[in-house]
Amino acid sequence: MTSSHTHKWGLGKGSSNHRSRTPGKAEGKQALAVSGRAGFVARGVVYVLVGALALQIASGGGGREADRQGALQQVAAQPFGKVMLWMLVVGFGCMTIWRGAGAILDNGPKRKAGSRLLDGGRAVFYGFVCWGTASFAAGTGGSSGGDAKSQDWTASALKLPAGQELVGLVGCVLIGVGATLAVRAVMRSFLKKLETERMSRRVRQAVTGLGVGGGMARGVVFAGVGVFALVAAVRFDPHQAKGMDATLRSFAHTPVGPWLLVAVAIGLVLFGGFSFASARWRRL
């Protein structure tokens, strides 16, 4: 059989390699999709718990911090809490892998450098979240909450050359991120990333409500943390910096009273629900 006949009937070396590579590529893509969905579930659990803790604070019964540390304490207090904590570790690890793959792997010509950089930053963030959750599960994470860590970081940063400018820049970035999250939620940009064609009309309406309400609340929290960081930079006082818990508590002392905190807390629970919906319908 000649070489031309070999290629004609798909028996050439290149055809064999193509058939051997395609299943592996499909399996790899499927594995990344599973990783992404596991990560969204873990994120949803944490946000639902943080929102629930914030609601307890609004009602005057909040003992634990309304942040990731407080959420992990809530999980640890449940039956099989240790197992659940390590499941969260796996979930956040999967999210780290999925975001990292989005930054590194080729996803077509429309994939811009800015999007890759954003996914890279998210991968680093979830890597720290995974490490912190694992440290907590192993009992080596310490007892300091997010507020103390924020103040410690700010104090260390302010001691650096141009540290005041650095802290101010971080504050401005967080404010910008918060504003972007809120605007995208209002514009319903998140729907482009969901398989809405697979949803019924009612499900789509429910998911849209979760995304709008949850995204706005998440944006408010990010912006609030950024404002306190900016104030800490302007006043050169690390004690002005606040983590998520102190930022949420500050909402209760606004002119509208605890109602702003209640609204944001409900929004965080909604965002947790949106994360679960993303685990089901996100395009991965």
What do these coordinates show?
With 284 residues, this protein is mainly α. Helix content is 76%, strand content 0%. The chain has 10 helices and no strands. Helix 2 (13-58) runs antiparallel to helix 10 (259-281). The longest helix is centred in the first third of the chain and has 46 residues, at 13-58. The radius of gyration is 22 Å and the shape is globular.
What secondary-structure arrangement, pairings included, does this model have?
Elements: H1 3-8, H2 13-58, H3 68-76, H4 81-104, H5 113-138, H6 146-158, H7 163-187, H8 201-235, H9 244-251, H10 259-281
Strand content: under 5%
- What's the pLDDT, averaged over the residues? 87
Number of helices: 10
* Total number of beta strands: 0
Radius of gyration: 22 Å
The low-confidence parts are 1-21
Shape: globular
Structural class: mainly alpha
Straight-line distance between termini:
44 Å
The helix/strand order is HHHHHHHHHH
Percent helix among the residues? over 70%
The profile of the biggest β sheet is:
none
Summarize the structure.
It contains 10 helices and no strands. It has helices spanning 3-8, 13-58, 68-76, 81-104, 113-138, 146-158, 163-187, 201-235, 244-251, 259-281. Helix 6 crosses helix 7 (163-187).
